Amino acid sequence: MVLLNCVNFFHNTVNAQSTCKPCSTPSGRYLVDVFSVEEVIRTSDIFYADSLSKNPRALNFYSVKDSCVSRPLIVYLPGSGFIDRGANPKNTDVANAKALYFARKGYAVAVVDYYRVADPYTSGSKFNGVMHEAMKDVHAALQYLIGYHNTFRVDTSNIFIIGESAGGIAGLGAILSDVNGEFIAEEIPSYVSPEDISLNHESLFP
User: Fold this and answer.
1) Which is it for the CA torsion 44, 40, 104, 6, positive or negative?
2) What is the distance between the alpha carbons of residues 60 and 51, in angstroms, rounded to a whole number?
3) What are the φ and ψ backbone dihedral angles of 16, each rounded to 5 degrees?
4) Positions in the chain whose pLDDT score sits under 70
5) What is the pLDDT of residue 116?
6) pLDDT confidence of residue 187
7) Number of Cβ within a 10 Å radius of residue 98
């Protein structure tokens, strides 16, 4: 699993409560469950069609109905191996459970689908092309969510990307590239040490 913007997430989580005004912020919000599963609203298949995306793709959005006008956003990119197996990885029980894990703590959560094909590994150049398109999809989804931040009630200064397997590759590639998928960094930035990641990532999910 890749967690981007880790330092803010692990060390400044409590400060995120300041972004949730005006509202009555429950004690422990963003750290522990403060909402029930029944209070989480899931809106499925929101299309983030964008000229940067090869094909219009969709996301599932999770939020709670409260008075917050600006909440930290977690963008979750589920694993897929970049393989299109028919079933959409954003609709799996695993993706739903992980989205609920964060939504119950008060975060807004977007589970994003990205470019996949039936056989991405037939050649190195084909895999690179698939990865490139997936990175562009992540950019397109972020642009959509930021463009409609008032509608989704998200804080654009507190956006975190979580990705597993291919989703981690797409997410990491997106933050190291521009909107056209061209890399702008020569190496992975040192957001957090490997030791910190190993100590903290297991506590993200039960």
Assistant:
1) positive
2) 20
3) -65, -20
4) 1-26, 49-55, 185-206
5) 92
6) 52
7) 22
pLDDT of residue 12: 37
Beta bridge partners of 160: 74
Here the tokens at position 137 are 């999809």
pLDDT in tens, 151-184: 999 999 999 999 999 999 999 989 888 877 777 7
Can you give the pLDDT at residue 17? 45
Six-digit token string for 25: 């912020």
- In angstroms, the CA 6 to CA 201 distance is 10
Confidence at residue 50, expressed as pLDDT on a 0 to 100 scale: 56
User: Residue 115's closest CA among 170, 163, 188?
Assistant: 170
SS (H, E, C) the chain: CEEECHHHHHHCCHHHHHHCCCCCCCCCCCCCCCCCHHHEEEEEEEECCCCCCCCCCEEEEEEECCCCCCEEEEEEECCCCCECCCCCHHHCHHHHHHHHHHHCCCCEEEEECCCCECCCCCCHHHHHHHHHHHHHHHHHHHHHHHHCHHHHCEEEEEEEEEECCHHHHHHHHHHCECCCCCECCCCCCCCCCHHHHHHHHHHCCC
